[in-house]
Design brief:
Blueprint: E1 44-46, E2 75-80, E3 86-95, E4 98-103, E5 109-113, H1 119-126, H2 133-140, H3 146-152, E6 171-172, H4 175-185, E7 189-194, H5 200-210, H6 213-222, E8 224-229, H7 237-249, E9 257-261, E10 267-272, H8 279-303
């Protein structure tokens, strides 16, 4: 179903990609920030996307960083072994003839000697300077320095606090309820703006990320979940007005948009659009914001 088009303010400095949907126009909704003030634009992280529909995995190989230029570890890469089999994930570190690798499929981290890789991949990776060698040491000797291992290697999923080990994160459409849970659990909130039954990129994000076991495990330990849905059908008036106010408050002009909030309600950052890169890409971008929110909550609790 084609979404009605509307014009709304841009999300500050956020990069609103064409791989997003315009929200339906709702002229009778009172989308007004109750404070009467704007919200400082959150930092935003692109989830990929171009002016064309999201390509399939076969059509969209990961762009390889230039080893001769500035490279930020970790970075996404699809590797091939000598038998031609592929694995997609992130290169966490490099030292000599080996790398530390995070596998998207199951979240496993391991050291890969160049001798196991295809000649092309081995030659490509050998051009990178040694970077973050301590991560490789931690993977090879996990007992030598437990705090270092936690900080350096467990980058795609923050370590759970003891009181979140048995927690189950569940989506709510009540912002007040989500805010209360975030404050009480000292966990950041993921606020999703979506058009669940008409926006193709929203549907893909739901399928590729939010329904995955890896995301549920990540959310159990690290997030409260709030969904502001703008479906094509009718919505209860209270929910509709709440969602319109949230859309205006956070400057949302396209779907899907994901906003991360600290337990105190401060904006940590946002994602706009969805380019089809999947759960590993989403978690690698979400993790720094989640870590920032949890660190802020710890600092606030210590100060009280």
């Amino acid at each position: 179903m084609k979404a009605p088009r509307g014009t709304l303010p841009l999300l500050g400095l956020a990069i609103l990609l064409s791989a997003s949907c315009q929200p339906p126009r709702t002229p009778d909704a009172k989308a007004v920030d109750s404070s009467g003030k704007g919200v400082p634009p959150p930092s935003s992280v692109s989830l990929g996307g171009t002016s064309s529909p999201p390509p399939t995995a076969a059509e969209a190989p990961l762009t390889r960083p230039d080893p001769t230029g500035p490279v930020a570890f970790p970075f996404d890469l699809t590797l091939k072994n000598r038998d031609g089999k592929s694995v997609t994930g992130q290169v966490l570190a490099k030292r000599g003839g080996e790398i530390a690798f995070f596998r998207d499929l199951d979240g496993t981290r391991f050291v890969v000697p160049f001798a196991l890789l295809s000649p092309e991949d081995a030659a490509y990776l050998s051009r990178f300077p040694d970077t973050r060698a301590e991560v490789i040491d931690d993977l090879k000797n996990p007992r030598r320095n437990v705090p270092a291992t936690s900080a350096r290697v467990a980058e795609a999923r923050p370590s759970p606090a003891p009181d979140t080990a048995s927690r189950k994160a569940r989506w709510t459409e009540n912002f007040e309820e989500a805010s209360r849970e975030s404050a009480e659990s000292h966990l950041p909130m993921l606020l999703l703006f979506t058009g669940s039954d008409w926006c193709p990129y929203c549907i893909k994000l739901e399928r590729d990320v939010f329904r995955k076991r890896e995301f549920q495990e990540f959310a159990n330990q690290n997030l409260t979940l709030m969904k502001a849905d703008f479906p094509s059908g009718r919505v209860r008036r209270g929910v509709r007005e709440q969602n319109e106010e949230l859309k205006a408050k956070y400057g949302v002009s396209g779907f899907p948009t994901v906003v991360f909030l600290s337990p105190k309600g401060d904006v940590l950052g946002s994602f706009s659009g969805y380019g089809g890169k999947g759960i590993g890409d989403f978690l690698s971008k979400a993790n720094p914001l989640v870590a920032q929110g949890k660190a802020a909550a710890t600092t606030d609790a210590a100060a009280e």
